[in-house]
């Protein structure tokens, strides 16, 4: 796994073979971040990485200058790996949390400029996640959600949907929280 760009560009981390996680491929990650550059400037923002897996996206967000990143992963070994990678980078910008994503979403009182969610493709609750994120108001006005999923799901008619991108078997649906008008 490698960091594509930013202050840690080119850094590699070897993922243990025993991991069950399916990290977003470097090809897909590079392409979706190229698309995202027209939506958001990562410098100085708050970001949330749900179902962090190997931490590939969290590390990319740290490298791209996010002010604060919260990384939520349930698996003990994956969480430990993310923590070790952050120690190697000698950064405290990312807070790796070990816990259930659904519990986190339901109890979170913070809002983020950017959220990346990459649940296991076979997760039965997968289709509910974008709606839950908006229902719990986790995005700031103008905030972006990138939702990674398999090809069997179509979110093009979902509220807040902006566009869909596909890179091989990896699909991304992009959502934006519209700015609310102030009275």
Automatic annotation (TrEMBL):
Pfam family for this entry, one: Cons_hypoth95
| GO MF entries | methyltransferase activity; nucleic acid binding
Would I find RNA-binding among this entry's keywords? no
Q: Which InterPro entries match?
A: DNA_methylase_N6_adenine_CS, RNA_MeTrfase_RsmD, SAM-dependent_MTases_sf
Gene3D superfamilies linked to this entry: Vaccinia Virus protein VP39 (3.40.50.150)
Kindly state a single biological-process term from the GO annotations of this entry. rRNA methylation
On the tree of life, the source organism's domain of life is Bacteria
Q: Which UniProt keywords apply?
A: Methyltransferase, Transferase
CDD domains cross-referenced by the UniProt entry: AdoMet_MTases (cd02440)
The identity of this protein, by name, is Methyltransferase
Query: Which source organism does the UniProt entry give?
Result: Xylanibacter ruminicola
């Amino acid at each position: 796994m490698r960091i594509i760009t930013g202050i840690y560009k080119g850094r590699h981390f070897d993922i243990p073979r025993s991991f069950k996680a399916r990290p977003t491929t470097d090809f897909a990650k590079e392409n979706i971040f190229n698309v995202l550059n027209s939506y958001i400037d990562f410098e100085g923002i708050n970001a949330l990485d749900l179902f962090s897996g190997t931490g590939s996206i969290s590390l990319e967000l740290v490298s791209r200058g996010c002010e604060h990143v919260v990384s939520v992963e349930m698996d003990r070994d994956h969480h430990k790996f993310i923590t070790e990678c952050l120690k190697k980078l000698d950064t405290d910008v990312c807070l790796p949390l070990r816990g259930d994503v659904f519990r986190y979403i339901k109890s979170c009182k913070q809002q983020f400029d950017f959220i990346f969610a990459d649940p296991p493709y076979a997760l039965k609750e997968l289709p509910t996640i974008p709606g839950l994120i908006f229902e719990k108001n986790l995005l700031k006005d103008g905030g972006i959600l990138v939702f990674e999923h398999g090809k069997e799901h179509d979110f093009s008619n979902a509220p807040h949907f902006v566009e869909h991108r596909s890179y091989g078997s990896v699909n991304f649906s992009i959502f934006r929280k519209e700015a609310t008008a102030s009275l």
